[in-house]
Structures are given as structure tokens and as C-alpha cells.
Amino acid sequence: MKITDRYVKMVCDRLTLPVEDVTGKRRDRELCEARQVISYILKQYTRLSLKAIACKVGYKCHASVIRDSRIVPDLLINKQYNAKYSPILTEARVVAERIEKEQKALLTGIPHLPGDICWFWNTGTQDRFPVIGTFDRIITDGDVIKYLCRELPDFSYTECLFVGDNILPAAFRGRVTMPQGRPAHPAPMLPAVRITRKAELCTTY
């Protein structure tokens, strides 16, 4: 799911409103307020252009996005409005911080891009043979960064290392041996996936 869609869905879920109604043309008060909040959040926490935000929430003109960026903070002075929307804005900020952390990890850690063939394992399990698979994306569990493997979507791992030319990660050498029958190079272990670096980011807008 794209980052922008995560914010839209989050607001709609909290207000129990259908996404298609909020991003549609109806002018009910609760829908208009939801649009304002989504517009404000997208301007605050994404790199979308004003025109793209307007299109996302169903506005005809980007001027409405500029208006929302000014009016929402003013409306928060109202106690009833604040009680309804302040928790949503707080949650959006937390989500934005988590996304930023995930993106930094993606840019600075190993692997760098989805589609890389990698070794996966959890800290403290170097006595067992690591898993090899396709890097999918990064998630956070509290302060811990975890890596997801496309072939095993129900599991997450604290360690991930791009295969490259290494037959076995250094942390495992001398502790485990290659199972008999496995090829010298790990690539054929996943015949359906090539070792390539795809040019798309893990979290797209």
C-alpha cells in the first residue's frame, strides 16, 4: 500500500467513513472535515505536490489544499473539533515518524532495494542455517527494525544480508555447514527469482 493511501485509510477508518465517499464529490459536513484533515496530513507528511494532494482527496483546485493547511490548525482551537481530530493528527505524526525511520533504514542498511536475494535470520540464532529469500520491505517493531522475506510473509527477521558473492554470512562461518545437496552458490535455491537490483523503492508515494 502506498504511503498516501495509508494516511487516507487511517483517517477514514478512525472516522468510520468509506474512502470512496471521503474522496468523492459529496459535500456532507463530516466528509468535508475528513477531506480537510487528510489534505492537511498529506501536505505535512508527504512530498506530494499541492495538485497531487487535491487530486487525491477529490478537490478541483490545489488552492483548497493551501486553505486546509491554514484552517485545520485554527479549527483545533474548538474543543469539540480538537477532541475528534487531534488523536487522528497525533497518530498521523507517529505513522510519519515510523515511515521516516523505515526509509532511513532502507537507504542506509542492507539490502538497499526490494527484489534483492538475501540471507535472513534473527539475532542469537547463528547456530541454525539462515533463510535465503527475496527482500520485500522493512517494518518496525517498537525500536527494532525487522526485515520481511517475500517467500515467508508471516515471518520477520532482525538480520538481513545481501547475498552478493558470499556463500554464507560471516556470522555463521564455523558454526554451521552448508546442507548436503545445496549448490555452492545460493542463487539456484530460488530458481524463480534472479539476483537483480530493481529500481523501485520499498515505500512508494
Description:
The chain has 205 residues and is of the alpha+beta class. It has two domains: 3-107, DnaA protein, C-terminal DNA-binding domain (Chromosomal Replication Initiator Protein Dnaa, Chain: A, Orthogonal Bundle), CATH 1.10.1750.10; 110-189. The chain has helices at 3-15, 19-22, 29-45, 50-57, 63-75, 79-108; strands at residues 117-121, 131-141, 144-149, 152-157, 159-162. Strands 4-3-2-1-5 form a five-stranded antiparallel β-sheet. The N and C termini lie close together (9 Å).
Give the helix/strand class: alpha+beta
CATH names the topology of the largest domain as: Chromosomal Replication Initiator Protein Dnaa, Chain: A
| Total of DSSP H or I helical runs spanning 4+ residues | 6
Q: What is the 3D shape?
A: elongated
Encode the helix/strand succession as letters.
HHHHHHEEEEE
Mean pLDDT: 77
Class of the largest domain, according to the CATH hierarchy? Answer: Mainly Alpha
Strand arrangement across the biggest beta sheet: 4-3-2-1-5
Q: What is the tally of beta strands?
A: 5
* Secondary-structure arrangement, i.e. CATH architecture of the largest domain: Orthogonal Bundle
- What count of domains describes the coordinates? 2
Ranges where pLDDT stays below 50 over 5 or more residues in a row are: 179-205
- How many strands, which pairing sense, and closed or not: the largest β-sheet? 5 strands, antiparallel
Strand content: 15-25%
Cα distance spanning the termini: 9 Å
Radius of gyration: 22 Å
Percent range for helical residues? 40-55%
Under CATH, the homologous superfamily of the largest domain reads DnaA protein, C-terminal DNA-binding domain
